[in-house]
Amino acid sequence: MNYKTSEIIVGLFVLIGIACLGYLAIKLGKLEVLSDSGYTVYADFPTVAGLKRGDPVEIAGVKVGRVESMGLADDRARLVLRVDDGVKLQEDVIASVRARGLIGDKFVLVSPGASDKIIPPGGRIRETESPPDIPDLIGKLVGGDLTSKVEKQTP
Amino acid sequence: MIPNDKRFWFAISAVVLATWTAAASVSAGVPTEQIRSTVDRAILVLKDPRLKPAAKTKERRAQLKQILFGRFDFTEMAKRALGTNWRRRTPKEQEEFVQLFSELLERAYADIIESYSEEKIIYIGERLDGGYADVASKVLASNGAEYSLNYKAHYVNSEWRVYDVIAENISVINNFRSQFNRVIAKSSYEELVRRLREKAEFGAAKR
Questions:
Q1: Using a CB-CB distance cutoff of 8 angstroms, which residues of chain B are in contact with residue A155?
Q2: Distance between CA A55 and CA A41 in Å, rounded?
Q3: CB A83, CB A35: distance < 8 Å
Q4: CB-nearest partner of A131 from B80, B152, B169
Q5: Which of A29, A134, B21, B30 has its CA 20 to 30 A from that of A85?
Q6: Cβ pairs bridging A and B (under 8 Å)
Q7: How far apart are alpha carbons A57 and A96 in whole angstroms?
Q8: pLDDT tens digits, residue range A103-139?
Q9: What residue of A is the nearest CA neighbor of B82?
Q10: Are A145 and B144 a contacting pair at CB < 8 A?
Q11: Are the C-beta atoms of B82 and B177 separated by less than 8 Å?
Q12: HSE (CB half, 13 Å, CA atoms) of A155?
């Protein structure tokens, strides 16, 4: 069977196109095919409202890892974070779930600590901070806490 | 006959609440007990009518300080609040920083603590993890509002000492850590100490 040169070129372009699409899908979907670089640590939060798999882990605004998976452990949210090799997390780092702006994308902010001990791969970040419930806080600040069940006792 | 009186129902609910909190206290562990006893002693001082007048503020603060200093680990708090910069400081600088930091905490929280008025505090659970404990409590204000207040404590010299307080999901230490880091990143550690000192002097002058 004989192929014309033009047919071969068309075929090649189609293949390249498919490869590009696959690359884009992986990049945009934040799927990591080769995810073995870095090491994992885990952290338990009271709530991680709005955080998704693949969201970044940052120190001082620099991405140093990502959320690899999340699940439940003892009624608390347990995040597994994959952190880049070479990034050392002290034992007293504080991991907090933050949003960019009031309602922006969520990420995990890690603030470096003072301890001499380093969290080993597979270790746990003990200090965590969940995102404050902004509407709830505003409600309490404004004064009338609508969610409370107890009425004020009038003497 | 059941008196259809508001007061009667109030008494009933008070008894129920008392037994409920008593039952909860039975299951509480050592960290909770130690923190509870400290908080209770502080509340006794706050409630003491003899210490209420403005002229007695100094005496009251001194008593509160004595109670709280035993339970709160200010060195550990200062260390954690300073973060990475702690290790770059000399022991003498660290000591000075601990002093400035505890004064800062006192100024920031004394008024809040002293605004206490008949809030109920219930302890809802604790988590133990080796030498670390996380004690969860709730503050019930008289207007019905609820606030979560968690204590993080570690075990040193056969005592549980608090190194962080998390109010409504906001960590006191993390709050200071980010502020301090911002000042240090923008200018320097010396500038941070200068500002803390300035605030301390200002606070002392105001008193």
A1: none
A2: 15
A3: no
A4: B169
A5: A29
A6: 69
A7: 10
A8: 778 899 999 888 888 999 999 999 898 877 777 777 7
A9: A114
A10: yes
A11: yes
A12: 1
ipTM of the complex in this document: 0.70
3-state class of B71 per DSSP?
Answer: helix
Task: Mark out chain A residues that contact chain B at CB-CB < 8 A.
Answer: 46, 60, 90, 92, 94, 96, 111-114, 116, 126-127, 129-133, 137, 140, 145, 148-153
Structural tokens at position B105: 């905490």
Q: What DSSP element (H or E) covers B46?
A: helix B30-47
CB contact under 8 A, B170 and A94: no
Cβ atoms < 10 Å from Cβ of A91: 17
Taking CA B172 as the corner, what is the angle to CA A121 and CA B101, rounded to the nearest 5 degrees?
A: 105
The CA distance from B169 to A132, in Å, is 6
By DSSP bridging, strand A94-99 and strand A56-59 are unpaired
> Could you give the CA distance from residue A135 to residue B1 in angstroms, rounded to a whole number?
46
- Residue B107: count other Cβ atoms within 10 Å of its Cβ: 16
Q: Is B80 in CB contact (< 8 Å) with chain A?
A: yes
B contacts of A133 (beta carbons < 8 Å): 168-169
Instruction: Kindly give the interhelix angle for B91-114 and B30-47, rounded to the nearest 10 degrees.
Output: 60
Whether residue B159 has pLDDT greater than 60: yes
Q: Determine if the pTM surpasses 0.90.
A: no
Residue A20 in tokens: 């590009």
